[in-house]
Design goal:
The protein is an alpha/beta fold and 130 residues long. The strands form 2 sheets. A 4-stranded mixed sheet has the order 1-4-3-2. The protein has a 4-stranded mixed sheet with strand order 5-8-7-6, covered by helices on one side. Strand 2 and strand 3 form a beta hairpin. Helix 1 runs antiparallel to helix 3. The radius of gyration is 15 Å and the shape is globular. The two termini are 27 Å apart.
Length: 130
């Protein structure tokens, strides 16, 4: 054990409220109210914070050259307890504005998953290891 743990995974967005509300609704997540500010919202995912930072963070972190209007260059994977839950959460996500990019399908590495884009074109997966 290295003593390192994952603490926050963040999306940078023009709409921290709308995008955090989307993920809260799809995955039934609670907001971490202690982290709430005018430029940040966070949701608790089993002890890890899923963060939503306003675009001012590019300037604050001095990473303006990394700003990408097409969406993020990474994706997040949300693990579920069953294949049925992959299907139901996929349906819920689509109903809230997500777009299916691939699946749902069984992967070559023993998972059942769906790859989606959220309303701001950030890619995420809903997954269950079989």
């Amino acid at each position: 054990m290295t003593g390192v743990r994952f603490s926050i995974a963040s999306y940078i967005t023009d709409d921290i409220v709308g995008l955090s509300d989307f993920y809260a609704a799809v995955f039934d997540l609670e907001e971490v109210l202690d982290l709430r500010s005018d430029i940040f919202r966070g949701l608790d995912v089993d002890g890890v914070t899923l963060g939503f930072s306003a675009t001012v963070v590019y300037e604050m972190l001095e990473i303006e050259e990394w700003a990408d209007p097409k969406g993020t260059a990474q994706y997040l994977t949300f693990e579920t307890e069953s294949s049925e839950e992959v299907d139901s959460r996929t349906e819920k996500a689509v109903g809230l504005g997500a777009r299916i990019l691939h699946g749902p399908y069984e992967t070559y590495y023993g998972a059942y998953q769906c790859v989606l884009a959220d309303p701001e074109h950030n890619v995420f997966r809903i997954n269950h290891f079989l």
